[in-house]
Specification:
Number of domains: 1
CATH class: Mainly Alpha
CATH superfamily: lambda repressor-like DNA-binding domains
Radius of gyration: 19 Å
Structural class: mainly alpha
CATH architecture: Orthogonal Bundle
Shape: elongated
Strand content: under 5%
Largest sheet: none
Helix content: 55-70%
Distance between the termini: 61 Å
Number of strands: 0
Number of helices: 6
Oligomer: single chain
Amino acid sequence: MPQIHSDAAVKIGRRLREVRQQLGISLEDLGELSQISWASIGRIERGVSSPTVETLVRIATALDVDPGAFLSDLTADDYGVRAHQVTARDLIRARRSDSRRRSG
C-alpha cells in the first residue's frame, strides 16, 4: 500500500475529492478538464502525492473553485516536524528587542 505523503497532502486530497464528488465528476473527467492524468489526481486524493501549485491551480480551475480552498488552515506543521518553530515575526521581534538592549 502506498505511503501517505503528509497530513497536509491528506487534507488537500480529502477536500479535492469532496468537491469533485459533490459535482458528480469522475476522476477521468477531471483529468480531461484539468489536463492532469486521472491517476495523478487519484494519488493526490489519497494523500499519497502532494500536488504542485500548477497542478492544484489546474484542478481548481477545472472544478471552478478558488485554489486557496484546498489550502485553507494548512500550516507547515501539517508537513511534519519543522527544525525551526520561529516565524519571521518572532525573528523581527527578537532583533528589535536585542537592538533596544544594546542601545539602552
